[in-house]
Amino acid sequence: MTSRSPISHSRVSRSQARLGRSIALHLFLTPLALVWLFPLWMMVVFSTMPDNGIFSPDIELLPHGNFLDNVSNLQRGTNFIGAIGISVSVAVTYTFLSVMLTSMAGWALARYNFFGKGMVVAIIFGTITLPYAVVLIPQFIMVARDFKLANTWVALIVPPLFNSLGVLFMRQSFSMMPHELFDAAKVEGVKEWRIFLFVALPLARPMLAALAIILFLASWNNYLWPLLINSKPGAMTAPVALGTLIGLTKVSWGGIMAGAVMLTAPMLVVFVLLQRHFVAGIAAGAIK
Amino acid sequence: MRYQNATAYRFLAPYLLIFSIFWLWPIIDSFLISFQATRTVPWRFAPTFNWGRLIGDPAFFNALKNTLLILVIQVPVMISLAIVMAVLLNSPLLKARGLFRFAFFAPVVVGEVAYSAVFRLMFNLDYGIINKLLNSIGLPSVDWFTNVTPAMAVIMMAVTWRWAGYNAIILLAGLQSIPEDVYEAATLDRVSKVKQFFYITLPLLKPIIVFCAVLSIIGTMQLFTEPFLITERGGPGGGTETLGLLLYRQGFRSLNFGYASAVAYTMAGLAIAISLVQIWLTREPK
Q1: Residue B199 CA, distance from chain mean position
Q2: Domain B57-281, architecture per CATH
Q3: Complex ipTM, two decimals?
Q4: Predicted model pTM
Q5: Cβ distance A260 to A84 under 8 Å?
Q6: pLDDT in tens, B43-86
Q7: Span A77-283: which CATH code?
Q8: In chain A, which segments carry CATH 1.10.3720.10?
């Protein structure tokens, strides 16, 4: 870096200082970015290598051509394709239902005054910092033993539908909209549920997209609850099915890595295509 | 103000119904179960059965110690790193911003199982890429999973890798809400960039940093998948067993729901304490 003259900032020294700062910035950030990309890159590399290549003393940093063999190894150990089918169906259904539920609740909190409103808001805020561990055991006993719903889709979809950040996000989105618009519709005699469905929801489309992406991802990657409640081989989600292989002695690690890639790659594509919505959805948790 | 109770509750009904059945009742029930002896049927009320065992159980204190150790090291490291990432990603001097954002934010979409598998393989003793790279620069292999300290280090590195970018996203949004002219004024007054960071950026970002810290603490406190899958059920010899793993082992392996509920409420107690600290830290100055 060039030293700046204390008396006058000439254009030249200013731009040299900028250049120096820019170089320092990239010299620091580039290795950090490479370290951060390394596990993902290695996941891809491992998924394309035969097992005797993964467990060899050589350093391999480039992909090979064994991905499909690894997929069929994986499929032999566990019905992974079937498990992916379950994961996709559950995540799609969950996302749709959860978006509807949280928007309806967010709409009620943004638009109406009602008895107990403060209490509802307090509950929603209170549960953000409540550890899930506190609900886990009775939830499991209830769903598995009382409702006899273990190893069903209902068990995977319904209990996680309660979601506090989503409601706060939608409440925020609806309260930023011009309420005169809704009131005008009301004067015209339009029913509240139609105002919600046909006026408010279409206006909230970008926020709904952000919310849907976050919810889909949460369902797709959910591990602990599906591990507990759907442990029968034919009812497992893809992460649970993959998890059962980790730690086995006779197992194809190339297969496990192929499974990891199949779980991760679609989400990475969605992330790249819809980064704006992703970032908005995550940032919404904190920025009010 | 006009009240519209009927309409409001019609919109809230499905959400509140799910909440009551699957959250409100379990929160209460969990508390009740923690005071019952659940190893014999029928369960019976025995107020000191689980809690008495808890305060004398070395496995509980081991899990508590491990969890707190991960908390006090991993969370500050990750939050500091996330602040650095956010500030640098926000720099107008940065080229190829999209690539850097991808590198740091991509782990956010990677599932726990997928990345646990990768980390486990990367840190393998004989064939892991990390030891191979250490050897190639003349350093000896580290036996990552048979000693407690390196095993803990792997867990902390894995969690930091997965969540630093997530926090950076939140912090970056916070940075972008700081008005540009604050910095312009400081630059005109010849305040150095470093001083601007410590005297403008950090104080204005404080509520968001505290929010990130609290979410991270509560997340890390419930850490389960990483010690379950990466270090093989909290190995070596319980050296990475966390409260989350102890709860799983007691509740779902030994089917000892009463004791597991006591562990769960210990975690809730810690979370409440941490939330109170947050409220105290971000209170409006009088």
Answers
A1: 28
A2: Orthogonal Bundle (1.10)
A3: 0.91
A4: 0.91
A5: no
A6: 888 888 899 999 999 999 999 999 999 999 999 999 999 999 99
A7: 1.10.3720.10
A8: 77-283
